[in-house]
C-alpha cells in the first residue's frame, strides 16, 4: 500500500517566467518544477484548469513568454513516485566536481564517469543531471544537451540557460556538432571500413531487455570510423556518429564484425574474457572529443576528455602491431 509523504510540491506557488524559460512548453516546465510527479498527473492538473498562466486556463502545448505568471497547484505524490535529490556530500556526487572540463555562465562540460546514468529513472535513483543540480543548488536551470549510455564515459554537455539549450539543440539538429569517440574493438579493423551505414531498430525482448538491431525497418544511421592504433587481437578506433541513434556505435561495431570490448549487450564472450583477464572492468567506449559553437560567444569550441586510467592501463598491456 502506498503512503504519502510531504514534499516541496504541496503548496500553491506563483512563478514569474524569466528569460531562462521563455519558449518552453508548460508541460515540460511543470515536470521540472514538480519533481517526481508522473507526467500523467501533470497533464491531468493542466486539463482540469488547476494550472493557470496569467489567471487563465492553458493547454499542455502552451509556450511560456517572459513575464508570464504561472500558478502551480499543490500536488501530493506517493513515496513510490517522489524522489529527493541526491546529497551533494555523497562521494559519487562530489567526485563529479573534479570531472568538470569547462564551465561558464552558459554551459558546463563534464567528463562523465562510466557506470552512472545521465538521468534518474527506470530503477535508477539519480543520474548525472540530478547530481549536478545538487552540487549547484543556486543554479536555476541545468539541462542535458545530449545523452551518453550509462556504461560510456566522456564528454557530456549541459546547458545552464534555456537559450543555450535551444542554440545547442539547433546545432545537433543541423549536424553542426561533431562527436568523436574512442572504442577498443575485437580483431583487425579493415582500412576500407571507413563508414558504416546500417538502419537501426529498437526492440524489446521477452525478458524485457531493450536492445538495438540492424534492421531494414529501422532508422537510417551512419557512423564514420578511423583506425587509431592496431594491437594483437584488437584495434583502437575513432568512431564519429553522423546520426544519433541509441547504441549506434556499439551496434555498428558489432555489425562490422568488431564488437566493442566488454559490451554486455553486443560483444563476444571469448574476447571479453581476454580483456577482463587484463583488468578491464567496463565497456571500452569513451566520448573523447566534442566540437561545437559556443551558444553565446559563437566561437568554435573543442573539448577533450582524457581516457580513464583503467582504459589507459589496458592499452599499455596490449601488444602494438
TrEMBL record:
PANTHER family according to UniProt: MITOCHONDRIAL RNA PSEUDOURIDINE SYNTHASE (PTHR21600), RIBOSOMAL LARGE SUBUNIT PSEUDOURIDINE SYNTHASE C (PTHR21600:SF92)
Name the record gives this protein: Pseudouridine synthase
Cross-referenced NCBIfam families: PRK11025.1, rluA_subfam
Domain RNA-binding S4 as annotated: residue spans: 24-83
Function: Responsible for synthesis of pseudouridine from uracil at positions 955, 2504 and 2580 in 23S ribosomal RNA.
Highest taxon of source: Bacteria
Keywords (A to Z) from UniProt: Isomerase, RNA-binding, rRNA processing
Gene that encodes it: rluC
GO MF term (any one): 23S rRNA pseudouridine(955/2504/2580) synthase activity
InterPro entries attached to this UniProt entry: PsdUridine_synth_cat_dom_sf, PsdUridine_synth_RluA-like_CS, PsdUridine_synth_RluC/D, PsdUridine_synth_RsuA/RluA, RluA_PseudoU_synthase, S4_RNA-bd, S4_RNA-bd_sf
Pfam families the UniProt entry points to: PseudoU_synth_2 (PF00849), S4 (PF01479)
Annotated EC: 5.4.99.-
CDD domains in the cross-refs: PseudoU_synth_RluA_like (cd02869), S4 (cd00165)
Record's catalysed reaction(s): uridine(955/2504/2580) in 23S rRNA = pseudouridine(955/2504/2580) in 23S rRNA; a uridine in RNA = a pseudouridine in RNA
Keyword rRNA processing: yes
Protein family membership: Belongs to the pseudouridine synthase RluA family.
SUPFAM superfamilies membership: Alpha-L RNA-binding motif, Pseudouridine synthase
Amino acid at each position: 500500500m502506498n503512503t504519502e509523504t510531504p514534499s516541496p510540491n504541496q503548496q500553491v506557488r506563483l512563478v514569474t517566467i524569466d528569460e531562462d524559460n521563455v519558449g518552453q512548453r508548460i508541460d515540460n516546465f511543470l515536470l521540472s518544477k514538480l519533481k517526481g510527479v508522473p507526467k500523467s498527473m501533470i497533464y491531468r492538473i493542466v486539463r482540469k484548469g488547476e494550472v493557470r498562466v496569467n489567471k487563465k486556463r492553458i493547454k499542455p502545448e502552451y509556450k511560456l513568454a517572459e513575464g508570464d505568471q504561472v500558478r502551480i497547484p499543490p500536488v501530493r505524490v506517493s513515496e513510490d513516485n517522489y524522489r529527493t535529490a541526491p546529497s551533494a556530500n555523497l562521494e559519487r556526487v562530489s567526485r563529479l566536481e573534479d570531472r568538470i572540463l569547462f564551465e561558464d555562465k552558459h554551459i558546463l562540460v563534464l567528463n562523465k564517469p562510466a557506470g552512472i546514468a545521465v538521468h534518474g529513472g527506470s530503477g535508477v535513483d539519480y543520474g548525472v543531471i540530478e547530481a549536478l543540480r545538487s552540487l549547484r543548488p543556486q543554479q536555476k536551470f541545468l539541462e542535458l544537451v545530449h545523452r551518453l549510455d550509462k556504461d560510456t564515459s566522456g564528454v557530456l554537455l549541459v546547458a545552464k540557460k534555456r537559450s543555450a539549450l535551444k542554440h545547442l539543440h539547433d546545432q545537433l539538429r543541423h549536424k553542426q556538432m561533431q562527436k568523436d569517440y574512442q572504442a577498443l574493438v575485437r580483431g583487425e579493423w579493415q582500412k576500407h571500413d571507413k563508414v558504416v551505414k546500417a538502419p537501426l531498430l529498437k526492440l524489446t525482448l521477452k525478458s524485457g531487455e531493450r536492445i538495438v538491431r540492424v534492421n531494414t525497418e529501422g532508422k537510417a544511421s551512419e557512423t564514420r570510423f578511423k583506425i587509431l592504433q592496431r594491437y594483437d587481437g584488437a584495434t583502437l578506433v575513432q568512431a564519429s556518429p553522423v546520426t544519433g541513434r541509441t547504441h549506434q556505435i556499439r551496434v555498428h561495431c558489432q555489425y562490422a564484425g568488431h564488437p566493442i570490448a566488454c559490451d554486455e549487450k553486443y560483444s563476444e564472450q571469448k574476447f571479453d574474457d581476454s580483456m577482463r583477464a587484463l583488468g578491464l572492468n567496463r565497456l571500452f567506449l569513451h566520448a573523447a572529443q566534442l566540437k561545437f559553437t559556443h551558444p553565446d560567444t559563437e566561437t568554435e569550441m573543442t573539448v577533450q576528455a582524457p581516457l580513464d586510467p583503467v582504459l589507459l592501463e589496458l592499452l599499455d598491456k596490449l601488444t602494438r602491431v
